[in-house]
Amino acid sequence: MTAPRLTVVSGPTAVGKGTVVTRLSQEHPEIFVSVSVTTRPPRPGEIEGVHYHFVSADEFDALIAGGALLEWATVHGLHRYGTPRTPVMQAIADGRPALLEIDLQGARQVRDNWPDAQFVFLAPPSWEELVSRLVGRGTESAAQRERRLETARAEMAAQAEFDFVVVNGEIGQAVKDLVALVCL
How far apart are CA 110 and CA 155, in angstroms? Predict the structure, then answer.
């Protein structure tokens, strides 16, 4: 493996980013996976510090003001998400490859701020499969699903901005493909 670097994984809502990255982190603990900060409330089963750091809007504002976030964005017009800068910098300094699972807005910020990072778009096998996954989650109302699908259309159109595309048709294969890129 070459010198460790930052890899950014992004893709449309419900493509399985969280599932793929969780499996990757379980199978490859040597890869640092950043835990994002968010202003949204936890979903059932989400654990503080494991899935996200859940903070208030005021706490998020303080992180921005203090320069503590590598990137941040408002997602689906509702909640803010961001990547704490210090843990990523420390992982790279410690010789570990670092991975961020973030939305398209955040990926664009990282591209501007960290040009040596590599960018991987996680794509669904088809639009129909993406819709099926979103509906199957059962975590959003019909209105929320429509808003997410509108966002997903724009996200899908941005694939060309990424260095690599990994299709998440089967989780195990998507993880292998992603690990191969992270460990280039």
Answer: 16
